[in-house]
Amino acid sequence: MKIAFVSDVAHPWQIGGVATTEATEAAELAKSHEVHFFSMRWPGMEPNFTYKNINYHTYHKISYERLFSHGRRSIRHALIFSINMLKIFGYKFDVVEANAFPYLHLPVVKLYCKLTGCKLIIDVAEIWDKKYWDAYLGKRLSALAFAFVQYFFGSADMYTINSSYEVENKLRALGIGEHRIGGVFAPVLDNEALSKIKRSPTKYRKHGIVFSGRLIKDKRIDEFLKIVNKVASKMPDVTATIIGDGPEEANIRQMIRRMGIEKNVKLKPFYNYDKKSKLYEDIVDSGLFLMMSEREGLSIITLESIALGTPVVLPDYSPIPKEVRDMCVVDAEVELPDKVIEILKSSDKSKYIKHKENLKLFSAARTNEFYGRIFRKLGLE
Questions:
Q1: pLDDT given for residue 203 in this prediction
Q2: pLDDT over 70 at 204, yes or no
Q3: Which of 53-62, 82-91, 257-266, 320-329 has the lowest average pLDDT?
Q4: Which of 317, 330, 251 is nearest to 288 (CA)?
Q5: Do 153 and 221 fall within a single domain?
Q6: pLDDT score recorded for residue 132
Q7: For a tag site, which of 217, 248, 366, 367 has the least CB within 10 Å?
């Protein structure tokens, strides 16, 4: 079959959970089908090229700095990308799988599928209620955005959920019938790559805290630093490594200076995709991974940390799905400094990882089996 993925982000040129999931699915499906990927043109990408047997078509130059405006995703750039997606009419596909976010491209891909008879799959990581839209856009724009999403979001032939069963339940609550829900699947763990990473007895920092992610407000790096500051007051030798890039970097550096923890905290940029083993080494050589984010779909980095044997600590407000949270240490935010100290001082980190068998839900090896079932439901096989 001829399959098209549509997403404004593309891994490895842009680092992120959804991008990683989509890239993994596309690469696995490309072993048996003709796969195309339509995205924005990130640095290092050409207008048309082939990578890992996937045919890429990129429109509208973008960078990480330009992707965000006033602390949220740029509506302007999303709109320009959506208009450029009209070029999909120059191709003939059997299936289009579109990333739900940032929604503005959905009318274009829906029209394409309606006119060509192509099947539309929408890939869902999160479902926002009206209250969240109000907080994200402000009440002036949120009503329009909410109505737009409600109308076009419900128009797919099939839905895949790349985050959690909680999102699947929200889909049902929106009136999406069981026959249109392909299931929950997030193929994000490369077991072969993870198995090659070993803890270094010379580098291992038992008093090390690590975080990796986009440096945006939603990740709550301010709260991360407050906890590091409190831990440092009792454990002066504690180290914290923040790995990532984003619009909040200058503010984060300013907070570190203001708190006086420059000797404790180190900032590193994202590693290139071909050097992801370096990220894994930073994680496996740390005492724990601290994730304070208030907005997450699945959190691949959390799963990778657990797979590497590094405990993950979350606040009780974390939106990370239950099947992932169950493997983590979860506590009230006010209790986290003491919990972090407890874990860092423990000689047995493994006891802070529960239900590790849940990791099998996220293996990339299941991709073709999962999609084969969806294609049969759509009458394509």
A1: 67
A2: no
A3: 320-329
A4: 330
A5: no
A6: 82
A7: 366
Q: Which residue has the higher pLDDT, 65 or 197?
A: 197
What pLDDT is stored for residue 276 in this prediction?
83
Phi/psi for 196 (5° steps) reads -80, -15
Burial 141-171 (b: 16+ CB within 10 A, else e): ebeebbeebeebbeebbbbbbbbbebbbebb
Render pLDDT for 106-128 as a digit per residue (tens, 0 to 9): 999 999 999 999 999 999 988 88
Q: For residues 211 and 240, what is the distance between their CA atoms, to the nearest angstrom?
A: 8
Question: Which amino acid is located at 38 in the chain?
Answer: F
Q: Are residues 294 and 373 in the same domain?
A: no
- DSSP alpha helix (H) spans, the chain: 17-29, 64-67, 75-84, 106-116, 130-137, 139-153, 165-173, 191-195, 221-234, 249-259, 276-284, 300-307, 322-325, 336-345, 367-377
> Angle at the Cα of 286 (from 12 to 194), degrees rounded to 5?
45
Tokens standing for residue 250: 């200058």
Transcribe 223-245 into DSSP letters.
Answer: HHHHHHHHHHHH-TT-EEEEE--
Task: State the helix-helix crossing angle for 221-234 and 249-259, rounded to 10 degrees.
Answer: 20
- Do 338 and 369 have their domain in common? no
Q: CA-to-CA distance for 121 and 301, rounded, in angstroms?
A: 25
Q: Evaluate whether 313 touches 336 at the Cβ level (below 8 Å).
A: yes
Indicate which CATH number applies to the domain containing 19.
Answer: 3.40.50.2000
